[in-house]
Structures are given as C-alpha cells and as structure tokens.
Amino acid sequence: MSIITINYPKKIIYSIIFYLAIGLSACTGGFKDTVMSPDGKIKIQVSSEDGQIYYAVSKSDKPILNRSLLGFVLQDSDLYKGLTITDVTFDSFNETWEQVWGEERFVTNHYNEMKLSIQEAGGMSRRFDLLFRVFNDGFGFRYEFPEQENLNDFVIMDELTEFALAGNHTTWSIPYDIEAYEGLYRPSSINALDTVCTPLTMETSDGLFLAIHEANLTDYAAMNLHPRNDGTTLKCYLTPWSTGEKVFMKAPHVTPWRTMIIADNEAGLLLSRLMLNLNEPNRIEDTSWIQPGRYIGIWWGMHMKEYTWETGPKHGATTANTKRYIDFASKHGFDGVLVEGWNKGWEDWRSFSFTESYPDFDMVEVTRYGAEKGVKLIGHHETGGWVSNYEPQMEEAFTLYRDHGVNAVKTGYVGTLLDGKEMHSGQFAVNHYRKVIETAVKYRLMIDNHEPVMPTGLQRTYPNLMTMEGVRGQEWDAWSNDGGNPPEHTTIIPFTRGLAGPMDFTPGTFNFTNKAMPGTRVQTTLAKQLALFVVLFSPLQMASDMIENYEANPAPFEFITQCPANWSETVVAEAKIGEYVTIARKDRNSENWFAGSITAENAREMFMQLDFLDKGVTYKARIFKDGKGAHYETDPYTLNIEEIEVTADSVLVIKQAPGGGTAIIFTKKDDLQ
Ligand code: NOJ
After folding, report:
1. Residue 469: CB within 6 Å of ligand 1?
2. Which of 53, 183, 382, 538 could pair covalently with 412 via S-S, beta carbons 3.0-4.6 A apart?
3. What is the tens place of the pLDDT at every residue in 516-536?
4. Residues known to be catalytic
5. How close is the Cα of 186 to the center of ligand 1, in Å?
6. Could you give all domains of the chain from N- to C-terminal order, each with its CATH number?
7. pLDDT tens sequence across 586-621
C-alpha cells in the first residue's frame, strides 16, 4: 500500500509565534485561544472563565456552537472547576492516505491543530490536555490524560462536554437506549429531544448540515447526547456500567474524539472523512487477506421461517443445503456463503458452542467443496450477548475457521444486555468488541459485527473490521410487527447511521411475499432493492434473499452480480434527507461506474449529471429502473432494463415510482468490443 504524505510538522518551535500571531489577535474580549480550519472558515475558540474551560465554534463568522463547557466529574472530585490554561501549541498537517478498501481510494487529511495544557490552579494540580483538530469540513477534539501522580487510576462519573448549538435545528436521531441501534431515525427539533445516540444529524435554518459523533472509541464508553434545560444545548451522556460508573481510566489515556461535521449541503455529510482521519493509521502490515466482496447466505430463510437455526426437519445449515448455496455462489461470482445455525446452542440462544457443529453440518466437507468451487464459507458466531461464554472459546473457534480456510466471521450479540447486565455501548462492550477485532487479526479473519457498539472509524486502524449492523436492517422486513421499514428509512440512514461507517443492511429482496407474517414486507420496488447495493456502502455486501428467488429473476439479478463492494471514487449527485439520494461510485478494480438512486414514498424524477465520467469517452449505461405502474405497495416488481449511450456531458432524468429507485452500470464502450 503506498502512502502519499505531505507533512508540515515543526511543532512547538513555531507555537509561540503562531500563538501570538493568530491566537491573541483573534481575541474578542476575555482570553481566547483560537484555531482556524485550513480554508480559514471554521474557527474554534477556547477560553478559561472563572476557572472553567469553554469552547465555541463558528463558520464564516456565524456561530455554530456557543460557549460550551468542557470537563469531568470524577468519582471523588470534580475536574471542571479551578482550571487554568498553562500552555498552548499549534500544528498543521496535510497528507493523502490510501484506504485498504472504502468509498474512495485516497483520503485527504488536512487540518490545523491546537493543543491546550489545562491544570488545576490549586489542590492536587491535576492536569490534562485538550487537543483540537480543525478540518475544512468540521472538527474533532479530545481530552488527553498524561501520566501523573495525582491522576492515575480514576473513575469518570460524568463527562461534561457540551454542544451549545446556536439554533433549534431539525435533527434526525434514535433514542440512546434502543436495542442495538435498531430504530427508525425520527426528525425532531433539538429542544424536543430526549437522550439520543450519535451520529446526531442536523439541518440549520441557514441550510448548513451538522453531525455530532465520535472517532476512535477505545477503552471508553460511547457518547450519547442529552438535552440541557435551555433547549438547544446538548451534553455528553456516556453509557454507564451496570454499577453506574461511566469509565474506569488509567493514565496515560485519551478520550475518543468528539467530532462535528459542518457541511454546506447533504452531500458534504456523506463525503466527509473526518472520522476516519481522526483514527490511527492501519496497523495491519500484510492486508492481502482482507478482501471486500459479495456474499449470499443461508439466512433470509430463517427470518422468513422457511428454515430453522437449530437442527431439525427444517434445518437450514445442512451440508447439502450449504453445497447448493456454494454452487449458486460459484456460478454467479459471489465470494462467500454465510451459514448461520451450523453450531450447537441455538435451542436456548445462550449455551453456544463455537467449535461443535450440528450432526447434519460437516465443516470439513463444505469448506473442501467451497475451495474446489472458489467460494469461501463465511463463519458465524451468534453469542446471544453472552460474552462470558464466547471469550473463552474465541481463540479455539478462530483457529477452527482459519484451519478450514474461512476468512470472515459474522459475530452477533442479540439481547438487550451483554452477560445480562452491560449495555452494547458501555466500556465493557467496547473492550470486548476490540478484543474480537484484534484476535481476529491474528487468525487473518475479517469481521462483520452485528449488534455492535456504534462504529467510530476503527476500520482505518483495523481494516479487517469490514462492516457492522447497528442499524434497523432489512431483516425487520421479515418479522417486525410494525409492517417493516417504511420507504423513507433508507433515504435517512445514509445521513445518520451511515456517517459512522459501513452498514451490513443486507438488501436484495426479490420476493416480496411473506407467508410467515403477511402484514410485514419489504416496502420498496425491485429496482430500489438493486439501487441499495450502491447507496448503502458495505465492503462485505450481502445479497440477502434465498437463491430460489434469484433463480426466478435472472434479469435484475445481473445488477447484483456485477456490482462491486469496493470503490475508488464516490460522487453524490443529489440528496435530501428523508426524500431521496443519488450516488455514483467507481469500481476499485475497473473503469466502470455504478449508480444507485432511491426515493422515499413519493414518485420523483432522478436527476444526475454524468460529469464524473471520463471526458471524451462514450459509455454504455445499462439502466435498471421502475417500470410503468410500479409502486412499492401495489406493484413492486415491474422493472425495465434499457441500454443507452452517454458521455460526461449527458444528464439522466429518470422516473422513479413511489418507494422506487434506479440502478445503473456505466461501462466504457471501447472496453466492450
Ligand atoms: C440478528 C442478526 O442481525 C441477524 O443477521 C442474524 O441472522 C440473527 N441475529 C441470528 O444471529
């Protein structure tokens, strides 16, 4: 992997000059330290007032965050009063780094940095640093605790970080305590929010788009946001341990970055890579075994009650059925087959063995057969949330998979609490998930983490962390008693959960009937199912339906068999949260582009300028679109496929049905001859 780096370090030396020139000159009453984004538009000011530390943020001189408090309540004392700023240093950085996989190949990481040393003026003289990084598309900051005598092992009871928003913006969020983040994101004004998870996405009345989240959540609790009394100030609310503490800390240690994307439009939210930039660079030297790809699975059949996870007459994970899926995967170019329900323990979803198969599943035979056909088994570890049952078996279970050529494992933590007491977003969970990722590296296993803690960009450091759930995925269209995901759901999640990283949403339903639960079903057209493969990024992308339903529909299935899961460029052609989004992506391994466009419950016309295509080249556009009369409620199946020639000067305007969509493959005409 090549890294292109342009550094402007020369830290400390310049800091005093820089500080005097930029910091003090920007003072507007009171003592304020200031750092600006590289383009000079976003400004962060930090001040110390009556022994308390505050920060404020503006863009182009318009306030984004008013004076917002920083600090902590510790178990036996406060760490937000009697503080002074003892030193300030500045730095700048500009590099371009290459992603092992992603929505684009290269990422620009360009920021200005300000580091403030904070110390108690009296008492124990405890200290911490505040590190701010300001990018052109937002900022991040974190607290850093150096090793010191009077602050070694300590317990955080509350992190007081505030976001005093400058207006009562429209927000999209889910409640903080919803199980595994599997909720519908609802619009609300800030003053009507309860405690919510991040990412919290906002639209201001000036047309700015903001998203508060965090980056690099390591040995800490996830951040949620809780409203303050004044209505537009949100305060950090860390997920507690079952015993009430928030975080057990041991210095030296840092908090995760508290981040905010500040974008001029919806596209800016989707294209911001601030969260990834605030994670540490890749720690895996040889990444040849990390392979994005498409997979199918013995999966939807269980959710539709055609199969069972546990062994018996309707057992899905039999050797014979797995071979059938492997044959299909091999024929249609899928990289893997996920097999759920292969191992003992599904009778009570608790006492899982991760090494013992049910008698009708022969791991040796299916992996031998898969190797012959060029298809990998994707492993499955459902824990039922019983971490204490999983961790002692993990090394042996990973060894088993490695020895049988398995290179990806889907993990799962169904249940409201881990080990019956800890939340999926608390420090206990964060540390467990990290242990899984790091252990998986040793065994060269990619991870697809279901029921995770909300992702925070760790895939930059551990690119074997491929994808995660943490979203109300397509499985809800099989069994949710509210009828399934409403059509607008997929036009909201790219701008909310999607900002936290890849989603294993598992699109691709081709048969919309539901014998097990007739009132519940996928609420889209078939064309929209195809478009989701582009819109919802996941480097392991599942085509989730049963293979019979693909065999019955070969024409639209062609799109799924062509659509890659790893990209070199991403373009957002148009977007409106909750209404529509149109995205084009260039394949990482060819010159082909793919587009996906989706609408919520309203019919509309997709509008896409093709100026991302190579100039002066004619492309064949193979278009999969809603046919006449298509409608997500009454006629989800009608779909037309057409081919036209286009160039970079073309504009595509295509009708979309209610709950519909469009999927397009662009191939260079010359490449076809
Ligand atoms: C919930 C997961 O999201 C789903 O994909 C899986 O099939 C079941 N748990 C069983 O592990």
Report:
1. yes
2. 382
3. 999 999 999 999 999 999 999
4. 475
5. 24
6. 33-277 (2.70.98.10), 291-415+436-446 (3.20.20.70)
7. 999 999 999 999 999 999 999 999 999 999 999 999
